[in-house]
Specification:
Blueprint (H helix, E strand, L loop, with lengths): L2 E5 L5 E5 L2 E5 L20 E3 L5 H4 L2 H8 L2 E5 H9 L7 E4 L4 E4 L2 E7 L16 E6 L4 E4 L8 H5 L6 E5 L8 H11 L3 E5 L11 H11 L3 E2 L7 E3 L1
Helix pairs in contact: 5-6
């Protein structure tokens, strides 16, 4: 089964697999680097790693327009319902939990970060996701620091790890190399960088270091670019 992943800048991705369309952390209309607007995307599932504006900014508008099912932590789901998203269109989860969905098995992983919602309310625990698809396994780290939990996440193999490299708010390039060593994925794709000057990074130099110090293949995309597993 082919899995197509498109980076829409920052930490926003679309994942197309088995006739299903997923959007991860939709931040489009106010993103300075997104190649499309929220009205341009389609989805049957939205995956939200945490509550910060640059990860949920367009979640409500996309969920209401597309009737997609939103997977997030309990607090974010309560916030979404208060914004008009139907109760039967949210799946509330927490760290370590997993759920079987039409596209595959989804598990919530630990992320060391913070989480507050755009209105300043508590956003629950931040997290990442492991997607176990028919014959592919993908780790979406979300916003996180380097953590030894990544060694456990890598058990069973990963076809792709998506890691933040921007530094300042998340782990930076150096720690991301250590994360790749712990996770041992076949491929690794960077995110959460070059959106604004404080998180500017040289992705080409990062890719060279991945090749030099790990066994993973780095995949560097421009916003709007795609890769296939």
């Amino acid at each position: 089964m082919t899995v197509e992943i498109r980076w829409l800048g920052h930490s926003c991705f679309t994942i197309s697999t088995g006739g299903h369309n997923l959007i991860v952390d939709p931040f489009l209309d106010d993103s300075p680097v997104a190649p499309v607007k929220a009205a341009d995307v389609t989805a049957d599932h939205l995956l939200l790693t945490h509550g910060h504006f640059d990860h949920v900014a367009d979640a409500v508008s996309i969920a209401l327009r597309t009737r997609a099912v939103v997977v997030a932590n309990f607090e974010i789901c309560e916030w979404l319902k208060a914004q008009g998203v139907a109760e039967d269109k949210v799946i509330a989860m927490n760290t370590g939990g997993q759920v079987e969905l039409p596209f595959g098995l989804l598990k919530v992983t630990v992320a060391h970060h913070s989480s507050s919602l755009p209105d300043g309310s508590y956003g629950g625990n931040p997290g990442g996701f492991v997607l176990s698809l028919k014959d592919r396994r993908i780790y979406l780290a979300g916003d996180t620091a380097l953590t030894l939990d990544m060694k456990l996440i890598g058990i069973g193999g990963l076809d792709l790890a998506v890691l933040p490299i921007g530094d300042l708010f998340t782990m930076g390039p150096e720690d991301s190399i250590e994360a790749v060593k712990l996770l041992n994925p076949t491929k690794v794709l960077p995110c959460h960088y070059n959106t604004w000057p404080p998180i500017e990074q040289d992705a080409s130099a990062w890719a060279d270091r991945v090749r030099s110090y790990t066994a993973a293949e780095p995949i560097v995309l421009e916003p709007g670019g795609t890769t296939t597993l």
